[in-house]
User: What shape does this take?
Amino acid sequence: MPFNSYPYIVFIIIVVLAFLGLERRFPWAKRAFLLLVSYGFYAWWRADFVLLLVGSTIVNYALGGEITRRHALSKSVRELLLTGLVFNLGLIGLFKYAGLFVASADGLLGLSYPIPHLFLPLAISFFTFEQISYLVDAADGKAQRYSFLDYALFVSYFPHLIAGPIVRYNDLIPQFAQSRTPIECGEDMSLGVTLFTIGLAKKTLIADNLAPFADVVFAAAHQGTALSATDAWLGTLFFAFQIYFDFSAYTDMALGSSCMLGIRLPFNFNAPYKSESIIEFWRRWHISLSTFLRDYLYFKLGGNRKGTARRYANLMITMLLGGLWHGANWTFMIWGGLHGFYLIVNHAWRSLWASARIKLPSALRPLGPPASVFLTFAATTVAWVVFRADDFPSAILMLRGLCGQGGQSSLITFSPLAASALVALFAIVWFAPNSMEMTWSYRPALDPPKGTSAVRQIRHLRWQPSRATAVTFGLVCIAAVLALSNLSPFIYFQF
Assistant: This one.
């Protein structure tokens, strides 16, 4: 049930109204109700995989409980943690990567094993990573023991179930027992509807209208067409903006859906194209994934505590695996490797700059931040080519086109309309406040994790619940809903 669909709009209205009724009369039933509707939400897509979700929840809850018990008795928990990791990563490996690994082995070794074609369970990467964090924290003695109802709801809570944010159990579970006053309910409803409307507008009015132009260029590259520089650049830029607004839209709609229920999800998207470095980019893009990889992979590998060479190796390993997490295609690992290389260069440059104590001439200092933003955007955009390409040869054709070494294709005309669209898109991502900045005074999400970029406080265009605001966003909502006829899934749904 995609957020950008008529069934979901009906679903969220019914769920919120029923939840408000339970909250006032039968607050003890709120958690059970949310768990049931979350399973119903997941079953709408394919009911049989609810058994997988429930089974994974039961196994991880049991393992986590036993790990916590043994840790309290100062007994070894290594075998249980290893069992949990093998179970969770094995599920992902079986359903998501079995075909890729068998096909790669067949190609490299000349084998002829049949390639399995398993149906990928929706959201398996997200709910598996969340449960891995619970097991690791339990092994470190950090996990509190919760009821099975609370734990199951943490795993399956529908606003974050399909494509994140990746939620930590201790951020979400305590909120399930909170109660709200009527005034707080009204504020949460206003804020949630506003965020949902902003997200729906980004998806239907911007991202979905950019998708056909990007798709036609990348499809031509997949068919072996030598692309002109115009087609390659327009296709690349349109995809860069498509994925930006697509993922931003999903994040807003997830946060908005949860705000209506009085529950805050993690801060997950903070205008990443305004970043002045790749390091900063990963503190702004998919924040919940980057912090998960930092805390449960990079730090566990040793982080920066074992010398410069080991630090760079840990960065590369983390980004390679983070890239592969996105899908069963080696292009995702190459994309992760590119960002690993970017991060290594970024850290090395910072160290060199600091040790040499280099300072720009005062006349050039104002140009430093804009130049850094532009360079970061360019590097990120080139990496998106590999991310979006269907295979490596397609990516090479796209990159050759970007360098002016392609053909004479004419798939997209660089018309005044296209130029105006690009100018408007650049203006929005670089200069306009984002949804979090507009609504932050009402705390639409949990505070940003330590080590990530803070939310910029703004004075103008700051959202406040009022009649004029309601009318404005009501009109935006009508336009966005009318555009739902061009339904397309969110990009991160495939991960």
In short: Residues 6-181 form one domain. The chain has two domains: 6-181, 185-494.
